[in-house]
């Protein structure tokens, strides 16, 4: 697995212990899962998209997450996607596989499949719908972390799951040797800094509007949906900050915000808008699966216009 030390150049390292601050790199893309026109998994398209994302600056790819339509893809499709992307990117980037479900018994089976398919780590979401209390949330993550040799990224997204991983729970989970990182969609900046100050967990901003702000207080990087369309720009924000150009980093973050808003805060799921924009750009995407519905022409045109404005701004 290629690993990158925050603040250094992008020379690959091959030892997890050599870069505890950013175990999967800095800039990760929450990659869409391309489908064919008939709705089947598009393995070739996934490989082409993955290669483009890595070539244009992504240190890692997160597969089978929210943006990857994990609720509507089968276990077999998830495994096939990990295997195909690993083949496409080789050792140029990390591959993190989403394995979270609402069922602990089911979830613990999936890291082993991901490991065999070539994943470098697993993304585990809080069990949804059941609304487990914090002791049950903690037990769930520990059981999943014990299921394989892969490092675990805790996915804290209470807006979708209905359950927060509370800061005190996260601090306890940090003691587990394979729980190494967090994808943070908690929208709790105070709670996040509390955990950062008391653990060695590598935090990744899971909301594109927080990429720079969270990085500035010690996060490892980001897991970006918007990077599906503009990986170079998302990377440039963190590159500028690392170079000491904080004003430039802020300027580039502000430049991308209209596209972030159009993709992530305009009333449609990010999966829908990301696929609409990718399709408009002639890149692999395909349809979304029901119950999601495709974006309309007006939305796709607006996304393409925002993309063009960002490209023109440099």
From TrEMBL:
Active-site positions on this chain: 155, 183
Site, Part of a proton relay during catalysis: residue positions: 66, 129
Lineage, broadest ranks: Bacteria, Bacillati, Actinomycetota, Actinomycetes, Kitasatosporales
Protein name: 4-hydroxy-tetrahydrodipicolinate synthase
Quaternary structure and partners: Homotetramer; dimer of dimers.
Binding residues for pyruvate: 67, 223
Protein family (similarity comment): Belongs to the DapA family.
Claim: Cytoplasm is one of the keywords in the record: yes
Molecular-function GO term, any one: 4-hydroxy-tetrahydrodipicolinate synthase activity
Known catalytic reactions: L-aspartate 4-semialdehyde + pyruvate = (2S,4S)-4-hydroxy-2,3,4,5-tetrahydrodipicolinate + H2O + H(+)
Localization terms from the record: Cytoplasm
PROSITE patterns: DHDPS_1, DHDPS_2
Transmembrane stretches, start-end: none
Enzyme class: lyase
Source organism of this protein record: Streptomyces cadmiisoli
Pathway as given in its UniProt record: Amino-acid biosynthesis; L-lysine biosynthesis via DAP pathway; (S)-tetrahydrodipicolinate from L-aspartate: step 3/4
